[in-house]
Amino acid sequence: EGMNIIASGYGEKIIKEGDEILLSELEHASNILPWFKLAKEKKAIIKYIKLENNRITLNGVKNSITEKTKIISVAQVSNSLGVVHDLKSIISKARSLGGNELRVVVDGAQGIVHSKVDVQELDCDFYCFSAHKLYAPMGVGIVYGKEAILETLPPYQGGGEMIKEVSFDKTTFNVSPYRFEAGT
Q1: What integer best gives the mean pLDDT of the chain?
Q2: Is residue 133 a contact partner of residue 113, using CB atoms and an 8 Å limit?
Q3: pLDDT tens digit string along 101-114?
Q4: CA 90 to CA 142: how far, in whole Å?
């Protein structure tokens, strides 16, 4: 659900026809399908970082990012091979090539279990994971987003807790993260 929130909220807002969404060849379906859906709706292009020895490399990132790349979404750790990617270097390289418009999304479902994660140090724009990987109940998850980005996004769903003020004429949404929480 976290990837869907990011793709439907932020991706819907910034992706235009012909823009590129960059994934790796090692992604889990949960980090592929939301982007496929968005790309189809917006007539965007899905591209893949070419791997070297089953790893995302700086060379692979360099050869994949173009001026049309708006989002790069990669797993911290591959769920199928267990490959741990050097996210800090990958994100730094992506930022140097993609400029201020490029956003980095991290699927942390496998990584959060095995390492300490500092989203500020990584400098990712979004980080999400399923909490059941940390022995929480199924259906619970985390979506981190930089506050400046979250404040620009429309709510994903509608409901009570997300409202700061409501009348018959106007609705003012609450601040993040409450603006994204439709229920209790």
Answers
A1: 89
A2: yes
A3: 899 999 998 888 88
A4: 22
